[in-house]
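pasting for the record
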Amino acid sequence: MGSLVLLFIGFCLILFLLRVQRKKNFPPGPYVFPIFGNLLQLNLTNPVPDLQKLSGQYGKIFSFYIGSRPVVVLNGVQVIKEALLKKSVEFAGRPQDLLVSHLTENKGVILADYGPSWREHRRFSLMTLRNFGLGKQSMEERILGETQHISAYLDRSAGKSMDPQHLFHKATSNIICAIIFGSRYEYENEFFLAMINKMQENAKLTNGPWAMLYDSLPVLRYLPLPFQRIFQNYHSVVEHVSGIVTQHNVTQVAGEMRDLIDCYQKEMEKQGDSNSSFDKSQMIGLLMDLLFAGTDTTSNTLRFAFLYLMTHPHVQERCQKEIDQVLGEKPQASFEDRHRMPYTQAMIHEAQRVANTVPLSVFHTTTKDTQLMGYDIPKGTLIIPNLSSVLNEESQWKFPHDFNPSNFLNDEGEFVKPEAFMPFSLGPRMCLGEGLARMELFLILVTLLRRFHFFWPEDGGVPDYTPVFGVTQAPKPYRLGFRLRGRQGV
């Protein structure tokens, strides 16, 4: 008995020595356990509801621990705007010791830390997207061309039902592939399907329980555990992208800019070797960023949109009536038509709001010691902007917990965008593909709603709006019912 008592006392002493204590004036939060921090207090399958509860208990800014690493969670419009807009530089860093940062090796733009290389690559990316027609008719033509492939695919199965997951992933992936690689894939291309599957799997795994263990317990990182699958998937796609870059070197014609690869290689030649941040490894990182970000978020938003349109037929009918009135005999929609479609615009934005595809944004870090809402936050602290808290904030929306386009309409029926609408985040780290995503969502949804009627099929079961959590949030698999409309606009 004495030995057991001594063992218990020793165990308690070890826990006491390993305990993590919050620094003075650090944001409050739950008690921190040794080794695991607060991970055992969160549902790692989907921690968003637990973070909402903690916010209710500790306030709009609170802290918890991933292992021994402190994390500050930002909730609500006021706090997130204060951090990401008013103190944008102080909160513009990216974590460099998490699974996602090890995956990309600080390359590209999404997970690259704040600094000269990130600024140069973000500026290059935005300029190149504009040069390839973002916001112009040429980009519309790319998107509408891909939308015709979607329509043709649906035409062949009109009157039936299908799982739309792969169809929308193929379409959005092809649009970004046309920009960065200069070509698209056929929908049944073997590698194309494998690449999409790997990206979808990584989207689920990278914010899942095994990734959390990787981040919390470095001693586990080299063991053959499920998080190794994330690295295998990523490097498999990297290998293919590297092959495309090599092929471009063979086929490139001087002065001809076919795609982003050609533009990047021209920039490399322009800058030379002297202290330039532009090199092949950075180019691969950038291509991977654009490929992943340009596929998953838009595809998942489309899937959420059709899920709600099928189960809210009055919304679908009103959108179709507006589309028919505005387009008339026009052969196809243009992005400018959105200004004459307030209700359809409102529906699309409402789909983005309820989709909440990046619920915890992309993690930030502080670049220097700073203060926020009266609390002291040291340099290097991991920051999570909880975008879910904003997109569902009760004081900001007329119908915060329902799918209702009226959230984006004023009393006169005009389209308005509340300040709480920030699915692309805010500040210097705001998603650089926002313009492309907005154009894709409008042109794809309008084109398909003009041609097809979407309905909940008999084999669809009971609609379930519960999202599947991941780096990008997705709807649960469902069946999409569709048939050609009686009066077709195209």
